[in-house]
Write a structure and sequence with these properties.
heterodimer, A: Rossmann fold, four-stranded antiparallel β-sheet, B: 311 residues
């Protein structure tokens, strides 16, 4: 098997600037491997959300090369972007739920976009909402939900299509510790089914609860990779976690 | 703890359009409708009226041209009444003997006098009054072209030096030209109204796109194609255009019916020639469908153009 076959996402010397401002991300080079679990950490303003934006195809880099699912994103025609986006699940920091749709319709949206018929939607969507503890809020619209409930709807929407890459920006920021563990268990379950997961978080407890995960640490737009775990072949282990959060 | 749900099969589906009623909710109709159906209704009503006027004028011209295309009039300009009558009879004999002529009629002097009476009074019929030319109407099998008219004129001149042959359609040519220009004006009006409708839909689609930008971005990031997103707006605009088209067609039809009634009351040959036929009504009823198609295409083009600015 070629080395490329092990790569889900590869960033090569990627930089990002908004307009004529200085670069917010500099010289990012890393690889995400299929079936791995990553935590993305860093102080506020370090560039986590900007990096995630590039990962969920909402932002093109200013320089460098990105390969995702074997496609070169720099040269990929715009018409082929939706096919890649359907392989992603995204939990946005501000949830980005559609305000006038019910919890059911928000969660069902990725399936509808992918062409699943209404008759096939009810069971998986209902099951997913029950799993995130919102079985009784199926018809509720986001404006009547608490922040925690909205976050859980956003997570359910991100995982409902069983994405190949799950990207979550602070997914447990608005939920209690018990629900945070429950959601993390959902991510682990997705991961065990083959989904690559990347979670941006400040939550030390969340990091410690998954010692075999890989840490990506951003500092002022630079990616710290003290163990080399973000390069092929990966070095997965406790040392990466300890060194990652110890910085 | 209960195991997390195993979420169905992997979605290796094709990029298919949205389906189901729930998709319509992505862009709530109550928020996007606004004045668009009423603008479309006014545009469609005006278009239907302009089209009806254009079609009626066309029918009138066609009918008149068809009636008069083969008609000729021979004037015998002779002061002596007896000679004039004899020449008129001879002209009729010569014409009917020609293979191009299907019928001939010598217009009686009484009829001519009656026609001229409003202008010259009894002078034409009184003793020693103004002599008026004799007229012979002829109908040709084909069109009374300039060549055919000249040939028949030459034929008559061999025996009747005072004869002059005129094609009736030539007299009415300036009238036809004026009516044709009105027809083109109606066509130009329809084009302008179509552009106006497209502009109204364009503005509405841009406004709706701006209002629902957040929803569109989410659908876009979830893998929605430009075609799918444009389709959401097309549906909304199609519904608006359907509503506006139905109202506009009703208003336009009522106006045509009222104006048509006024013209019918004139009971003049040339006016009744402008009556709308069944096929004409079918064209008028197709205008709202054209309006819907135009509105949908405009909405699609507007939304696709806006989407192309997103990654």
């Amino acid at each position: 098997m070629s080395e490329r076959a092990h790569e889900l996402v590869t960033f090569d010397n990627v930089g990002l600037r908004y307009g004529t401002e200085p670069e917010v991300l500099r010289d990012l080079s890393f690889t995400l491997f299929p079936g791995s679990f990553y935590f993305l950490t860093g102080a506020s303003g370090a560039g986590k959300t900007s990096l995630l934006k590039m990962l969920y195809l909402a932002q093109r880099p200013s320089r460098g090369a990105i390969r995702m699912f074997g496609k070169d994103l720099i040269t990929l025609p715009r018409e082929q972007m939706p096919q890649l986006r359907r392989k992603l699940g995204v939990v946005f920091q501000n949830f980005r739920l559609i305000p006038h749709l019910s919890a059911f319709d928000n969660v069902a949206l990725p399936l509808r976009v992918a062409g699943v018929r209404d008759a096939e939607l009810t069971e998986p969507v209902t099951e997913m909402l029950e799993w995130v503890g919102l079985g009784h809020r199926i018809e509720a619209v986001p404006t009547t939900m608490s922040g925690g409930e909205q976050q859980r709807v956003a997570i359910a929407r991100a995982v409902i299509g069983r994405p190949q890459l799950l990207i979550a920006d602070e997914p447990t920021g608005n939920v209690d510790p018990e629900m945070a563990q429950r959601l993390l268990q959902l991510f682990e379950r997705m991961n065990s089914l083959g989904t690559t997961v990347i979670v941006a978080t400040h939550d030390i407890n969340l990091l410690r609860s998954m010692p075999d995960s890989l840490i990506m640490r951003l500092q002022k737009g630079n990616l710290l990779d003290p163990t080399g775990a973000l390069r092929y072949p990966p070095q997965i282990g406790r040392r990466a976690l300890d060194e990652g959060i110890g910085k | 703890m209960k195991r997390p749900p195993l979420i169905g099969r992997s979605l290796a589906r094709d990029l298919v359009p949205f389906g189901g009623k729930r998709v319509d909710r992505l862009v709530p109709r109550s928020r996007s409708r606004g004045p668009v159906p009423w603008v479309i209704a006014i545009m469609i009503a005006l278009t239907v009226m302009a089209a009806a006027a254009g079609i009626a004028l066309g029918n009138l011209i066609d009918r008149a041209e068809s009636d008069l295309s083969g008609a000729l009039t021979v004037q015998i300009i002779e002061a002596n009444a007896e000679v004039r009558d004899a020449q008129a009879q001879r002209a009729a004999e010569l014409l009917i003997a020609d293979s191009a002529v299907t019928s001939v009629r010598v217009v009686p002097q009484e009829e001519l006098a009656q026609l001229l009476n409003p202008w010259i009074g009894d002078t034409a019929t009184s003793e020693g009054g103004i002599p008026i030319p004799a007229l012979v109407d002829a109908e040709l099998a084909g069109v009374a072209s300039a060549e055919e008219t000249a040939r028949l004129n030459a034929l008559l001149l061999e025996e009747i030096p005072t004869a002059r042959v005129d094609a009736q359609s030539a007299w009415l040519r300036p009238v036809y030209d004026a009516l044709s220009s009105l027809r083109y004006m109606a066509l130009a009006l329809i084009v302008l109204l179509a552009l106006g409708s497209a502009a109204a839909v364009w503005l509405a689609a841009r406004s709706a796109f701006s209002t629902h930008r957040q929803t569109i971005e989410i659908v876009h990031l979830l893998g929605g194609t430009d075609r799918q997103i444009a389709q959401i707006f097309q549906r909304t605009v199609a519904f608006d255009a359907l509503l506006g088209g139905a109202v506009g067609l009703a208003l336009g039809s009522i106006a045509i019916w009222l104006v048509g009634g006024r013209f019918a009351a004139i009971d003049s040959g040339i006016v009744t020639g402008g009556n709308l036929r069944l096929i004409d009504w079918a064209i008028l009823f197709a205008i709202p469908l054209g309006g819907i198609a135009l509105a949908m295409l405009t909405a699609r083009a507007t939304v696709l153009s806006a989407l192309r600015r997103m990654l």
